[in-house]
Specification:
The chain has about 270 residues and is mainly α. About 75% of the residues lie in helices and about 0% in strands. The protein is globular.
Length: about 270
């Protein structure tokens, strides 16, 4: 039953995306131009040893390629459900969706599945272009470590996404959680450059962000082949974030949904 409904959501979103073919091809063009931009930035460091990149293999383009790929998944985890809820609100279909006999968590998971499918296709383009055109080397990748870090990252940021969705259900717009997290992710999270480049006080701030540990651990697992035991500090921190944010996300979303149903505000936008 769940898989049939989940497939229905994926099919619906796929048909919507493919109905705008020009937009789809522009997305592909955007991937290529983004990779070229960072490739030529990486050429600035060619022939030089950059100490901040050495722990991750030493190549800037490879570093930012992986950072971009993971950050896309993080973005979907953080804002995917919130965006779908906002869209259903604007169309006036949110109440009808939430009063169906389908379990609420089945709905939420299904609503976000297409985003992850899309990220996977987009990530495959990133990686393929990186390997074929720009010589990115993934031979040292530790697959098990990479998957564990990936799963913990998705759990952590999906929980933050539930907090954002709860805010949207109650206040309709102006969610500060995803805005702050998304803004800080690019600057302080190590997506575009290692956080070791920061002055000590700014580096200390970055360590309070889960994205910092996700990016660092994924870089080490993919390019240096780190095992799970070698990344226990990063894994431990992500587990702590998950243990705090998962119940907080569920409780907040349940409260927001009950309040909206009681106030009759699910149909409001």
């Amino acid at each position: 039953m769940f898989f049939r409904k989940a497939f229905a959501f994926i099919k619906r979103d796929f048909l919507i995306v493919t109905s705008y073919r020009f937009s789809f091809f522009m997305e592909i063009f955007g991937i290529v131009t983004t990779l070229l931009t960072f490739y030529f930035i990486g050429r600035l460091f060619e022939g030089r040893i950059v100490s901040h990149l050495v722990p991750y293999g030493g190549d800037y383009f490879s570093y930012v390629l992986l950072g971009l790929t993971l950050s896309n998944y993080i973005g979907t985890s953080l804002s995917g459900i919130m965006g779908q809820i906002n869209s259903e609100q604007s169309m006036g279909t949110l109440e009808a969706l939430f009063v169906t006999p389908t379990k609420i968590w089945h709905l939420l998971l299904s609503m976000n599945l297409w985003g992850f499918v899309y990220n996977t296709v987009e990530g495959a383009f990133y990686i393929l272009f990186g390997i074929i055109l720009f010589g990115v080397d993934l031979t040292n990748m530790n697959f098990l470590s990479s998957m564990i870090i990936f799963i913990l990252t998705i759990i952590t940021f999906s929980s933050l996404g539930l907090l954002s969705s709860a805010f949207i259900i109650v206040f309709k717009r102006g969610d500060p959680i995803s805005w702050v997290t998304g803004t800080l992710m690019g600057l302080l999270g190590g997506v575009y450059f290692p956080v070791s480049i920061f002055p000590s006080w700014l580096k200390d701030i970055s360590l309070f962000l889960p994205v910092t540990h996700s990016i660092q651990a994924m870089q080490l697992a993919v390019y240096k082949g780190y095992s799970l035991t070698m990344m226990l500090p990063q894994i431990g921190i992500l587990v702590i974030f998950s243990l705090i944010l998962v119940p907080a996300g569920f409780i907040s979303f349940n409260y927001a949904l009950k309040k909206a149903k009681k106030d009759g505000s699910l149909i409001q936008y």
